[in-house]
Design brief:
InterPro entries: CBFA_NFYB_domain, Histone-fold, Transc_fact_NFYB/HAP3. By secondary structure, the protein is mainly alpha-helical. It has helices at residues 5-25, 29-39, 48-75, 83-92, 99-116, 129-142. It has 2 domains: 9-79, Histone, subunit A, CATH 1.10.20.10; 82-143. The longest helix is centred in the middle third of the chain and has 28 residues, at 48-75.
């Protein structure tokens, strides 16, 4: 199918804006490089292409999990996504091995906030029976 000149310009403009949006959404390169350096040998080199590839993978993963969590919010007619929704989405997508560590992190973060006198994060989501059930499943699978 041949495109008219105007269609080609619109397509190219959309393609460029899409590329621009992706580059704006990427995790900062120094953060990615720092994480990569922790894993590879000190004398190892990290190319710019490798950093860009990891940045793109991270943003795709975030979008993938967020879309699933958002679908859960839509089912409940809610407009606010919670950590609870993300944990359920991770489990549904097969990333159950992240649930236990994230649950522990969220609880420690909550304790830290309380020590600092910060307003508490909504606690009911962390202690929901559904999340506790997921954490129990994950921890019993490890044992």
């Amino acid at each position: 199918m041949k495109r008219t000149h105007e269609e080609r310009e619109n397509f190219e403009c959309h393609e460029n804006s899409s590329e621009q949006r992706i580059s704006n959404d990427l995790v900062p390169a120094p953060n990615v490089t720092g994480l990569m350096r922790r894993i590879i040998l000190n004398q190892g080199e990290i190319s710019a292409d490798a950093v860009i590839s990891i940045q793109q993978c991270v943003i795709k993963f975030i979008r993938y999990v967020t879309a699933e969590a958002n679908a859960r919010c839509g089912e409940g007619m809610r407009t606010t996504m919670t950590a609870h929704d993300v944990l359920i989405a991770l489990n549904k997508l097969g990333f159950h091995h992240y649930i236990g560590p994230l649950f522990i992190y969220m609880n420690r973060f909550q304790e830290f906030q309380a020590e600092q006198g910060d307003p508490p994060v909504i606690r009911r989501h962390y202690s929901s029976p559904e999340v506790w059930g997921l954490v129990h499943q994950v921890l019993t699978l490890k044992g």
